[in-house]
Amino acid sequence: MRAARPEVSFEFFPPKSDDGFAGLLRTADALAKYKPDFFSVTYGAGGSTRQGTFRTVETLRRHGHNAIPHLSWGEESSRQICDLLGRYQDLGVSRLVLIRGDVPSGAYAPTHYASELVQLVHARFRDTFRTYVAAYAEMHPQAPGPSEDLRRLKQKLDAGASAAITQYFYVLEAYRRLVLEARATGIVKPIVAGIMPITNYERLVRFSDSCGAEIPRWIRCRLTELADHDQALRDFGAQVVTDLCSRLVEEGAPGLHFYTLNRWRATARILDGLALEMDRHGSSAKGAAT
Ligand SMILES: Cc1cc2nc3c(=O)[nH]c(=O)nc-3n(C[C@H](O)[C@H](O)[C@H](O)COP(=O)(O)OP(=O)(O)OC[C@H]3O[C@@H](n4cnc5c(N)ncnc54)[C@H](O)[C@@H]3O)c2cc1C
């Protein structure tokens, strides 16, 4: 066991209104104290938030935050993708999260796997951008099996991506296995752990069902019991996720990527708890300590 200092990053989605933007800036300001490596902004497959993603990255950067975009390749031409990347380069963006994207039902079939986008970016822009791709501790829901999913992850990393970020998970063993199996297949690049704070039972179940993340029975039972006790549910959620992060850090996870849903309190609470935990063990989480 070793206590390392992981990278910390926070994920946002593009707000739809001016109020949403104001709220997001407050969130970014509040989370900036944890000195994240970056704030990332999601992208709607099908281009539904293409403008929203750009505007959000631009706005956050204008306010001094290192915001980077997620990008997927739908029906656009490779030239349109490269034009967009040129605009990001002009903003000073040096990292990208490259994903296939989830398609709004019935919109269109995904046209490009993430590996194709990684290939395009590195063929046209060489090493201008440090790129991140998605990984799945509990397997991508559409993959035929875990080995095939891992092979596809390796393909993305071999195509030039620098690191992977996992879908969120609550079963530590699933992440451990992913890392072990990745190392066994020759993947040496970092696999950052995706972290979803727990603040609302119904929303968590909805997300988890759609992305294939397991909520262990002991957590489900407790959340059901606390469904009408908002504060107690948040306290329990913070404890569970802080404990998960603490173990991830102890075991040397290279980074923690928080799915913030544009809110800061639950994430800040976890990072504060983690800093205390790490202090007790003679080390500290990067966000709180540096
Ligand atoms: C860190 C992170 C960030 C995300 N950000 C966003 C976002 O901004 N917007 C959004 O819409 N969604 C986002 N997602 C969700 C993601 O887009 C979905 O999980 C999507 O269904 C798969 O994306 P991917 O990049 O993993 O796809 P891919 O790596 O392309 O894989 C998709 C599926 O196809 C399989 N596969 C891959 N290559 C091939 C091939 N050549 N032949 C056959 N099968 C293949 C894989 O095993 C997998 O089952 C994110 C997920 C994560 C973990």
What does this structure look like?
The structure is a single chain. The protein is of the alpha/beta class and 290 residues long. It has one domain: TIM Barrel (Alpha-Beta Barrel). It has an eight-stranded parallel β-barrel, surrounded by five helices. It binds flavin-adenine dinucleotide. The site of flavin-adenine dinucleotide has 24 residues, from helix 4, helix 5 and strand 6.
Task: Tell me briefly what this model is.
With 290 residues, this protein is α/β, with parallel strands linked by helices.
**Heterogens:** flavin-adenine dinucleotide
Approximate strand percentage: 5-15%
Please tell me the total number of domains: 1
**Average of per-residue pLDDT values:** 91
Q: How much helix, percentage-wise, in residues? A: 40-55%
SSE pattern: EHEHEHEHEHEHEHHHEHH
CATH architecture: Alpha-Beta Barrel
Poorly predicted runs: 284-290
Radius of gyration: 18 Å
Query: Major β-sheet, in short?
Result: 8 strands, parallel, barrel
Envelope shape:
globular
Strand order of the largest sheet: 1-2-3-4-5-6-7-8
Task: Assign the CATH topology.
Answer: TIM Barrel
Q: Characteristics of this structure?
A:
8 strands, 290 residues, 8-stranded parallel β-barrel, binds flavin-adenine dinucleotide, globular, 14% strand, alpha/beta, 11 helices, disordered C terminus, TIM Barrel
